[in-house]
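Re: your question about FACT complex subunit SSRP1

S., sorry for the slow reply, the queue was backed up all week. Below is exactly what I fed in.
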Amino acid sequence: MADTLEFNEIYQEVKGSMNDGRLRLSRQGVIFKNSKTGKVDNIQASELAEGVWRRVALGHGLKLLTKNGHVYKYDGFRESEFDKLSDFFKAHYCLELAEKDLCVKGWNWGTVRFGGQLLSFDIGEQPVFEIPLSNVSQCTTGKNEVTLEFHQNDDAEVSLMEVRFYVPPTQEDGVDPVEAFAQNVLSKADVIQATGDAICIFRELQCLTPRGRYDIRIYPTFLHLHGKTFDYKIPYTTVLRLFLLPHKDQRQMFFVISLDPPIKQGQTRYHFLILLFSKDEDISLTLNMNEEEVEKRFEGRLTKNMSGSLYEMVSRVMKALVNRKITVPGNFQGHSGAQCITCSYKASSGLLYPLERGFIYVHKPPVHIRFDEISFVNFARGTTTTRSFDFEIETKQGTQYTFSSIEREEYGKLFDFVNAKKLNIKNRGLKEGMKQSYDEYADSDEDQHDAYLERMKEEGKIREENANDSSDGSGEETDSSFNPGEEDDDVAEEFDSNASASSSSGDGDSDREDKKPAKKAKIVKDRKPRKKQPESKKGKDPNAPKRPMSAYMLWLNASREKIKSDHPGISITDLSKKAGELWKAMSKEKKEEWDRKAEDARRDYEKAMKEYSVGSKADSHRGERSKKKKKKQEKQVKGKGDKKGATSKSLSSKSPAKGMSDSFKSKEFVSSDESSSAESKKEDSEDEGAASPPPSSEDSASASD
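Result:
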């Protein structure tokens, strides 16, 4: 037989709600761990008194009764698991796992039996329902009637708030059955009554949640918060965990009390009670008990008279009464030496404490996340600035927590902590890249290396080159389309062909068509200088002398290989960082040596620059003369084209008058005929080219005649 049995997806019935978790049975006892809160119930094998197997709504259930009267219920078993559990109970706990079914007759008349913490309503030998008396918040009596009121359960969709029992009168003298019923209930019920004096009182403590100043009265079974507006009574059984956390300023302390179920104020639920103390506050405390009672109850954990810091006294008293350990931060230390990290959660700024078994964030809203419920964590870049990053946590239930605005210097410490705790890191494959990126951010404020500036320079160069390429292409197109040289004849020819194709239109129409292209050409000519402006902003001349290096860069080039050999596998950014540290630590004499080398390089650069500037000026003068000569030739060619256009117009005006004496010709026929003759003349002028000599005076005179 196996020494242990484990069951997943088992539900524990607590105050009317079913809490999911894992159940483990071993030789030592029974352990149930709540998946939601992480709370562990441990039942020693020697304490078990009875085990009951029965059919319930979720399949089959197991009810365990202990010798001190506590009852534990677990549901979600399969029917086939009964034999395995029965054999295990016999072998390891020496108990018979009894089978008892609930009564489903639906009768409302029966007998009430009080056993331990349970009120059982039975019909015959079969139970109908059971009420844990710890759920009872109030018990009132009437004539032959007892009313039980229950604590509201926020986790349950439907909560049972009240049950009334009719108790018939009996013939026995001196015994009131109603009062006897009520006393049995109140002896086990969780009814908070401030009877007697408080063990001790702490006055005017600053409370962050719920906000305000409260007097804390310590009673044997509950904690009473008394404020100006609200009062809260907190049973010690609802305290889940205690935390004592130092503030980042090292002058204050947080004392955090985790509660389940939470305290309520209207619709607001407070799962955490957070007290803030100053380390300088001291107190002398005297317990309202004699020394024998203190020794008997607390077994040396408290004494009648105590003194010390206020936060120490409060935490010490709470630890003794609640009987739970106080969780403090582990060995984590941030960049500033504090045991916490400043960050923002949702809209508020607070402190994130990495603990040995989880994370806790204080204070608004407080969040506690255990490692065993974390699915993975993620390190993300800050959304608003590069000086910070975000730390994301996603739980196995799919809930995501994002702690933002964490200083970039905290990245290395937090990453090492998460890695040491063996948590799943979503971007683990990018570990080196992430480290490099944050190292680059760390260097971005230094003068030696600015990664962001270098990246912007590279992008600027690329944009400038693209702009130059596009401007060169567009400039060529505009020059070819609207050059007043020989390409201008092609444009004129295109408009002439349009005129012949639409010759049915009048002279006015042809004139308007001629004017439109001229306007377009003028617009492009006006924009041409703006497009050609980037030509003056072209990249550096490759023949120009290179700028001299600084003393640091000369030293870095000479020492790079030595640094790599001393630190094998070092990354580029880490190498730059290490080089900066070595340069800062270098003596003044050694730096002067590299300063002299840098000065020599600067002189050589200035000398080469002078020679380069003289040569570039001569080239620019030659270029200007060639441009002027080219413009002069273009003007001559344009003047020649204007003269030929004038002669063609005079010929076309004379030809209709000459032909009218012979025979009548329509205007359309004349314009088409003369336009073809103009086209033939323009083709002849294109064949001649711009380099042909201008026409002689005799030719021009004959053409005019």
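The radius of gyration is 48 Å. Residues 4-99 form a domain with the PH-domain like fold (CATH 2.30.29.30).

Happy to talk it through on Thursday.
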